[in-house]
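Q:
Just now I want nothing more than another pair of eyes on a protein record. Here is the record:
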Amino acid sequence: MHPSNRVVTLAATLLLTTSACTYYKYIEVKPEQLPRLNGGTTMVLGQVGNMTHVGVTVGRIESPDGRVHEIRGGFNLLVSDRNHPTRFEHPVQSDVSETVLRVSGGNRGETLFQLAAIEYAKVEVRDGMKSTLATLGISVIIALLGTVTVMTATDSW
């Protein structure tokens, strides 16, 4: 294989690999505060030249230990009652009335939970730092492999 073809192959591999490097984290939240996150989304507002302007909603919600978290854009939700976790995918909507939490998501209709029976509610959000570091690490490794491949193919050692 010609060295330039190897570089193109490595570049394509890099693009495919880095696009798959997305990590997520779970943030435990107080179930009764979930309606504060209704409408969480990310949308393209416009484009000027090569720049795309994106709007992201931000919801503030408290975890059981009292820390306040900012949830940016869309999210998934995991609610567990009596050792039975239920996953809701974006877009998630919720409502609390007296002792009942109502939740629906893109993957399932309205589900009712007794607030007293909920073991935990966890919001799944993208972990930007881990995703960036993974992409950077893989990019460096593939760049080094590409350099070695080109140098080997052209006998530039």
About this structure: Residues 23-126 form one domain.
